[in-house]
Every structure is written in C-alpha cells, then in structure tokens.
C-alpha cells in the first residue's frame, strides 16, 4: 500500500489514517517520487518494527545528509546526528553525568519549582493558561538547575525559551531563538574555563579532552532545547489528558501510588515526538515482508507504534512498555529527568486543583503539528 505523506497531526488523537494503515501491515511506501538515486521512502507504524529499526545501528544510519554550510554548523554535538563510534563517545560523556543518583538528588528542587509555579498559576486566577504559566517555566527552571545555569540567569533564559516558541510576534521568536543559541555557547565557553557544579561542569571536568568546543556547545544547545521544549509540550499534554479524562484524574488523586503507571501512560498515549530522525538502510534486507534496499529512507512513527498497542488512556495499564523515548543507541538521555518531573508534577496538579477542567471546548484547542518541533497544544485554558 502506498501512503500519502507528509500528514499533519492537528489534534490530540492520531491521524486516523495511521490506524487504517495497520490493517495493511507495519511498513508502507510513501507516495513521494524516488530520489535521483532511485531510493524509496517508507513509513513504519508497527511497534516491534520501530523498535527493531531504532535498535539496529549496524543496518540503519541516523546521520543527516549534510547539504550546506548551515547544516555543518548545526551538526557538531547534536547526538541525533551521529552514528557510532562518535555517537558512543559523546553519549558516554553525558551518560556519566546523568546517573540515577544525580537525577534523584534533584527531587527536592523539582518539588520546590513545581509548587512555586503552581502558586503562580493559582495567583493568576481561574481561568488561566497552563502552557504559559506552568508547562513552560517548570521544565525550564529544572533544566537550568540541572545543567548549571546560574540562578540569576534562569528567569530570563526561561522567558527566551517560551518566547522562541510561543510568541505571536515573528521578530520576537527569532530574537529569542538567537538569544538561546548565544547564551548556550557562552555557557559552554564559561564551563570550559571554570567548570561549575551542574551537568556540563561535570562533563568538562571528566571528559573535557574528549569533546571539542563546538561539540560541547552543541551538547548544551541540544540538551537544553530537548529538556525544556519537549518537556513543556509533554507536561501540557499530560494535563490536557487528565482534564479530559476526569475519572482518571480522580483515580490518581485517590490513589497516588499510581503515579508511576500514570507517568508512563502519559508518555505512551500522549507521545509528542511523532517521528525520530529518519533512518537510512545501509544494506539490502527484507523487513516485515517488504524488500528494503540500501539507501532507502525509513520514517518510524513512534505515535502509531505506541497507540496501536492500546488506543485508550488508562493509568492502571499493566503493560507499561512504550517507545516514547525512542529505543537503541539514540534512546533519550533526558528520560530519567522527564520521568522525575512528571512524577512530581502530576500528583501536585491533581492535589492542588482537584476540580481542574478545560475552560474552553476541547474542539477549540489549537495544536502545533509536531514537525519538526514536538507536537504541542498552543494554549491550554483551564479553570478550577
């Protein structure tokens, strides 16, 4: 079956065509013209097939084509753009500064930030926009603390992150985006000269000789953007899911021990990263009964893979497996921090706002389609 792509996800539920595709198997050829070299493009929607492709760095490459100088300037340090062994080298520098003990040590500060931001939300009065007043500042402040951004800079950097994505003024979005790039590069240079107590100070102290200045700056940019933008989008989607499933929200409030399963269900059902970086086949193979040739490009749908295993939001789900954080060598390094934030934020929200609900009809909500930025709700007016 040949499928029309690209599609746009403009609402919380997946594009209906993704489920229709499953009836014809987990692998589908795009209806785009083959490239000049004759290679085809494929959409992968099966859970097992997505996991297989993401895990197999020997047969599939995630390297981006480098077409111009702008691409070359963007690539250093962005982990998704590397294959082993360079990916392994850079990933190790981050992994060793991202231990379970280190993440758990952030819990008191995370709890403090969540409560402060919910205080600010409450002070706005009902109704208020959860995206602007909580979903953005919570992960921004937590990421700043984790990475080593000085407290005096955190509020301004948090504002730039929000405005770079949320401002309705194009010039303001551009200026804020450039401000983030400028700040993160200065932060990388400062950490190189005088390593601090945050994650990047640890990288410089332990692995400074293994990472170039350009790679360190790229690591700072990539991790900060992922830690803030993706988590802000996911937190807003989580609250939207609870607000539109009041029985599930009441269950979490009555049974706080369900927070772990609720967290995984939010990531699974409300996947915000629809497709990771495309993979290029390195060898000829047969996959799901289809002939794939070296050079063919495969786009893996995390959204479809997750939802085909259960298209109902259920925080008591026993099978918590999902691929929201990817799989294999590119498994999201920020997953432990994301889980910590969600495990702190969800119980706090349902405790502080037991009657939380949408302040507008669900059909009036507007969504960002998720390409290339994560899928997100633009505004989330809530009342309590």
Task: Describe the protein.
The protein has a single domain, classed as Cytochrome P450 (Cytochrome p450, Orthogonal Bundle). It is 51% helix and 9% strand. It has 16 helices and 13 strands. The strands form four sheets. The protein has a six-stranded mixed β-sheet with strand order 1-2-3-9-6-4, with helices on one face. A three-stranded antiparallel β-sheet has the order 5-13-10. α6 packs across α16, α8 crosses α9 and α14 crosses α16. The relative contact order is 0.18. About 3% of the residues have low confidence. Belongs to the cytochrome P450 family. GO terms for molecular function: heme binding; iron ion binding; monooxygenase activity; oxidoreductase activity, acting on paired donors, with incorporation or reduction of molecular oxygen. This is Cytochrome P450. InterPro entries: Cyt_P450, Cyt_P450_B, Cyt_P450_CS, Cyt_P450_sf.
Write the layout of secondary structure elements.
Blueprint (H helix, E strand, L loop, with lengths): L1 E2 L12 H7 L4 E4 L10 E4 L2 H9 L4 E2 L7 H6 L11 H10 L4 H5 L2 H18 L3 E2 H6 L1 H11 L3 H16 L3 H24 L5 H9 L5 H32 L1 H9 L4 H11 L9 E3 L3 E3 L2 E3 L4 E4 L1 H6 L27 H18 L4 E2 L8 E2 L7 E2 L3 E3 L1
Parallel strand pairs: 1-2, 3-9
Antiparallel strand pairs: 2-3, 4-6, 5-13, 6-9, 7-8, 10-13, 11-12
Helix pairs in contact: 6-8, 6-16, 8-9, 8-12, 9-10, 10-12, 12-16, 14-16
InterPro entries: Cyt_P450, Cyt_P450_B, Cyt_P450_CS, Cyt_P450_sf
Keywords: Heme, Iron, Metal-binding, Monooxygenase, Oxidoreductase
Protein name: Cytochrome P450
Can you give the mean pLDDT? 86
Sheet with the most strands, sense and barrel status: 6 strands, mixed
Approximately how much beta-strand content do the residues carry?
5-15%
- Gyration radius from CA atoms, angstroms: 21 Å
Quickly give the CATH architecture: Orthogonal Bundle
Measured distance between first and last alpha carbons: 47 Å
